[in-house]
Design a protein that fits this description.
Distance between the termini: 36 Å
Low-confidence stretches: none
Number of helices: 10
Order of helices and strands: EEEHEEEHHHHHEHEHEEHHEE
Strand order of the largest sheet: 6-7-8-3-9-10-12-11
Helix content: 25-40%
Mean pLDDT: 90
Radius of gyration: 21 Å
Length: 321
């Protein structure tokens, strides 16, 4: 199957007082049509930076050092001045309250999106489209909600508004950056179920950023595991849960509550992902990996093919020392 978007060797640095922070250290990734791809990893691993880089929303401190983002035959990095991306990509941010303007009514905020992207659309048409899309995401009395301000709505309803706003452009790929962080578990499940339903109805790909493998298990077609700015394993849902290969992936599985039955405490992964201010060749996970070999402290294992649907950054038997 032909990919919808392809990322090759994407490297992003951030200017900071300590120096250049290596946020993305050579990302290779494909997004396929009509799939839900979950990107999983702990805070600071680069998940959100990856989404914002694709969307062209890096802050001024962020710089693309190398790499390519191919979409429909175009390298978006080379054509950054033209920014063809926003017409086909949508973004859902973590906090719906921060994503909405507190001084503007919901209807006006959504109408602004349509006026920018569809300048020839009549006012009546815009209003009808907004009403219909609010209904699609489960908002009751949409005409009333359009006249309300964000603070007048619940957290779950605000997140539905943010989803509806992202869908106004009928995107081919929707990036959802931890869209349920500010919500309770019950509402979170409803929002994620809604996203999966909309993706199927609209034949839309969804890149879902999460830090919970349990969420990925229930909603993802494929799962990419990120650590310290690199993808260390990527596989179909079935392959990953049946045969995880990278030690970081295995550590994430070991920390799941269902894998800790009978234990008084959950298993934890000691330490945290490092902040990288220099180019390094060794495996940065080695210091947290009790089974690391000498080679890991010298060189990063390459991303190798386990099967047609499964890749992991691990050493194979017979690899040169």
């Amino acid at each position: 199957m032909k990919n919808l978007l392809k990322i090759k060797n994407l490297r992003v640095d951030f200017d900071q007082m300590k120096g250049q922070l290596r946020a993305l250290r050579g990302i290779d990734l494909e997004i396929m049509p009509n799939e839900i791809l979950c990107i999983v990893g702990e805070s600071g691993c680069g998940k959100s930076v990856l989404c914002k880089t694709i969307m062209g929303l890096l802050c001024k401190e962020g710089k693309i050092i190398d790499g390519h983002i191919f979409y429909e035959g175009n390298d978006l990095i080379q054509q950054a001045d033209q920014r063809i991306v926003p017409s086909d990509f949508g973004l859902i941010l973590q906090d719906p309250l921060m994503a909405l303007d507190p001084k503007m009514k919901i209807g006006r905020q959504m109408d602004e999106v349509l006026r920018i992207h569809f300048p020839d659309m009549k006012k009546k048409e815009r209003k009808e489209k907004i009403e219909h899309i609010l209904q699609d995401v489960g908002i009751d009395r949409p005409l009333l909600r359009m006249e309300q301000y964000p603070h007048m709505l619940s957290g779950g309803m605000r997140q539905r508004i943010v989803i509806a706003t992202a869908l106004l452009k009928s995107p081919k790929i929707l990036f959802a950056d931890e869209p349920t962080t500010a919500l309770d578990p019950i509402i979170s499940k409803k929002i994620l179920t809604l996203l999966a339903k909309l993706a199927k109805q609209r034949e839309m790909s969804v890149v879902l950023v999460v830090h919970d493998l349990g969420v990925a298990y229930h909603f993802a077609d494929r799962i990419a595991i990120m650590y310290a700015g690199k993808i260390v394993e990527i596989a179909t849902n079935k392959d990953l849960f049946k045969d995880a290969r990278h030690p970081y992936t295995k550590a994430l599985f070991a920390s799941l509550p269902e894998n800790n039955k009978g234990n008084s405490r959950l298993r934890t992964l000691q330490g945290s992902a490092p902040m990288l201010y220099e180019d390094i060749e060794y495996d940065v996970f080695a210091s947290r990996n009790p089974n690391a070999c000498e080679k890991d402290y010298v060189k990063q294992a390459p991303l190798i093919k386990i099967s047609d649907t499964h890749y992991a950054a691990i050493w194979q038997e017979g690899d040169d020392e």
